[in-house]
């Protein structure tokens, strides 16, 4: 196509060429053009290879310098927090104020402890300990502590810092906090409630909960039980594992829905997603299996079931660029609908898949007594057929392709913007004839791969606005999806939330993919993200979330979440280090990036705790 487009407007330059040769050139060009369009209209695009991209020469010194820059970014952010907000929860980095939005126990300092230790910031760590030692984890009566956020930020932060430092104070404070939270489990089913009053030991009575909040504490409580020898902590983790494993999920194809009834312990809606309100509940199935030395077959089965459902039903390709994305599903009596929203929060998922490929024998699960096809025996005929389609491939290959394709889309939502920062939510385009399910495109590709990479996998250049000079940002950010919405001008998505909230999920996946595949592009993409953070979110006292990533001048939001120091900067730092201080086969990150060591239960512990 490019040759023909060049020849026709410049044909006057070829007047001295014999007509038959000119006709031959044009005929060859026409043939190539026809073949190009025929190929483009198929369900697969031949993406650019690494050879089409130039990666600057990397040396250990370059990456060490980049890690040092991330460390300095952490010091800048924490210094601002200490000067303007400590011992309150979070810094307001534009107004230089503070907020107590997570119990008022200094969440930024606790959330940052293990990052400080990894970076060798001993002075900052030493200054945080006295305040932590004096915290009694109470609020005035009738004020409630959110269980989920308290576990992942405070309990996880204390446990990870203990695991790295060996400081008994941190273990003891973690035990004290977990004891204060015990009333959360006073429900008929045993699932924890949303919040508790740590002053009088009562919980905020509720009959419903969401997956992320009721099933994202198992690894913290299991490790706490290991280091304290207290059976009650282990029992709580075990109970929820039992509830999830024994739940009736036939109509959901083995996938865990978002909402659950805390009385019955059963699902209470039909919404399926790996995004908000559910994400970490799915994440912990794999991570609990890995942390306990790969001995709990139930968690492995749950992980295989949920990932199989996602691959078969929730992965799609966009019509033009063939971006691979994961979305949600709402099940109705007459079928399933999807919003085709792609959330930044879901960008943890490619990293989880890559971790599983790296550490699980996905093509030899019979070693654990698992027959993948048999996992669907009690499912509907449609779900059994979906498992049969998946069985046409090596499971490890499919998981890795999905990981790489999804992570690329996460990156492109950053790189497509003038700021280089990724929006919170985008809505992907769908063909007039219907959405392209990835598993079906994968089967078509397998039948005639012809040297091409799998659909949605392979390097792709960002969408560039100079190619679309007449496009305004207003056209790309409509108020709502309605008839007459504008075209996406080849970008294949509309932005539904233009905010960048300093989130970690994308760089988390880059870090895991770099460590598991050794492909340097993930480091370079992480470096792109870090430079954008420095350019557009840095303030005099820290870093701020921003709105308007699609513009050249995003608006500061005056918020620096504690997870920016606990997760985002930690993953970037680990991404740029040559030697990983937390090898993935020896450590497991909780959903707040707090690293807990892999351990095995002794025979005595198994008997004492009733561990299967």
Task: Write a compact overview of the structure shown.
With 612 residues, this protein is mainly alpha-helical. Belongs to the glycosyl hydrolase 47 family.
Essential attributes:
612 residues; mainly alpha; Glycosyltransferase; three-stranded antiparallel β-sheet; 22 helices; 10% strand; disordered N terminus
Explain the overall architecture.
It contains 22 helices and 21 strands. The strands form 8 sheets. It has a 3-stranded antiparallel beta sheet with strand order 3-4-5. The chain has a domain at 136-313 and 588-612: Glycosyltransferase (Alpha/alpha barrel), CATH 1.50.10. The longest helix has 25 residues, at 60-84. Helix content is 45%, strand content 10%. The chain is globular, with a radius of gyration of 26 Å. One of its GO terms (cellular component) is endoplasmic reticulum. It comes from Boletus edulis BED1.
Q: What class do helices, strands and sheet pairing give?
A: mainly alpha
Number of helices: 22
Q: Considering DSSP H and I runs of 4 or more, what fraction of the residues is helical?
A: 40-55%
Order of neighbouring strands in the sheet with most strands:
3-4-5
- Average pLDDT rating: 89
CATH class of one domain: Mainly Alpha
Rg (C-alpha, Å): 26 Å
CATH architecture level-2 label of one domain: Alpha/alpha barrel
Mass-distribution shape: globular
Report the major sheet: 3 strands, antiparallel
Assign the CATH topology of one domain: Glycosyltransferase
State the end-to-end distance: 63 Å
Strand proportion? 5-15%
């Amino acid at each position: 196509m490019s040759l023909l487009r060049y020849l026709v407007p410049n044909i006057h330059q070829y007047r001295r060429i014999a007509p038959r040769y000119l006709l031959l050139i044009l005929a060859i060009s026409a043939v190539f053009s026809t073949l190009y369009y025929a190929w483009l209209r198929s369900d697969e695009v031949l993406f650019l290879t690494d050879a089409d991209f130039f990666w600057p020469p990397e040396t250990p010194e370059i990456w060490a310098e980049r890690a040092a820059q991330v460390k300095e970014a952490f010091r800048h952010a924490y210094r601002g927090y200490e000067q303007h907000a400590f011992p309150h929860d979070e810094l307001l980095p534009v107004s230089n104020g503070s907020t107590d939005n997570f119990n008022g126990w200094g969440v930024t300092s606790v959330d940052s402890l293990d990052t400080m230790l990894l970076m060798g910031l001993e002075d900052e760590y030493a200054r945080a300990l006295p305040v932590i030692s004096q915290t009694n984890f109470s609020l005035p009566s009738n004020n409630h502590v959110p269980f989920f956020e308290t576990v992942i930020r405070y309990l996880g932060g204390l446990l990870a810092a203990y695991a790295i430092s060996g400081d008994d104070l941190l273990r003891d404070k973690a035990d004290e906090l977990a004891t204060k939270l015990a009333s959360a489990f006073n429900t008929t089913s045993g699932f924890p409630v949303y919040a508790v009053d740590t002053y009088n030991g009562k919980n905020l009575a509720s009959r419903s909960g969401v997956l992320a909040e009721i099933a994202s504490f198992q690894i913290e409580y299991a490790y706490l039980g290991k280091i304290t020898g207290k059976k009650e902590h282990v029992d709580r983790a075990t109970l929820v594992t039992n509830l999830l494993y024994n739940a009736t999920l036939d109509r959901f194809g083995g996938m865990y829905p978002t909402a659950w009834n805390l009385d019955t312990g059963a699902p209470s809606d039909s919404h399926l997603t790996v995004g908000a309100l559910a994400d970490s509940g799915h994440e912990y199935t794999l991570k609990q299996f890995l942390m306990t030395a790969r001995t709990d077959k139930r968690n492995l089965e749950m992980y295989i079931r949920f990932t199989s459902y996602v691959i078969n039903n929730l992965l799609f390709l966009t019509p033009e660029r063939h971006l691979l994305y994961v979305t949600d599903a709402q099940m109705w009596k007459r079928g399933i609908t999807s919003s085709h929203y792609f959330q930044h929060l879901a960008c943890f998922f490619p990293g989880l898949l890559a971790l599983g490929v790296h550490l699980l024998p996905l093509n030899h699960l019979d070693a654990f007594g698992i027959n993948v096809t048999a996992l669907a025996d009690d499912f509907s005929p449609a779900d059994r057929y979906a498992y049969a389609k998946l069985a046409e491939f090596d499971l490890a290959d499919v998981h890795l392709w999905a990981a790489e394709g999804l992570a690329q889309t996460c990156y492109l939502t950053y790189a497509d913007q003038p700021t280089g920062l990724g929006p919170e939510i985008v809505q992907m385009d769908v063909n007039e004839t219907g959405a392209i399910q990835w598993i079906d495109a994968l089967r078509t590709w397998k039948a005639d791969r012809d040297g091409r990479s799998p659909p949605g996998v392979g390097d792709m250049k960002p969408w560039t606005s100079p190619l679309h000079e007449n496009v305004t940002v207003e056209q790309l950010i409509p108020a709502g999806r309605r008839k007459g919405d504008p075209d996406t001008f080849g970008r294949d998505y509309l932005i539904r939330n233009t905010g960048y909230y300093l989130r970690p999920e994308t760089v988390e996946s880059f870090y895991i993919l770099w460590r598991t595949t050794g492909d340097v592009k993930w480091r370079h993409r992480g470096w792109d993200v870090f430079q954008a953070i420095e350019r557009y979110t840095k303030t005099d006292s820290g870093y701020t979330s921003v709105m308007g990533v699609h513009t050249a001048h995003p608006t500061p939001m005056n918020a620096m979440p504690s997870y920016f120091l606990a997760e985002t900067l930690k993953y970037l730092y680990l991404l740029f280090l040559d030697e990983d201080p937390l090898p993935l086969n020896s450590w497991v990150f909780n959903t707040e990036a707090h690293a807990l060591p892999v351990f095995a239960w002794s025979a005595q512990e198994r008997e004492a705790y009733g561990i299967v």
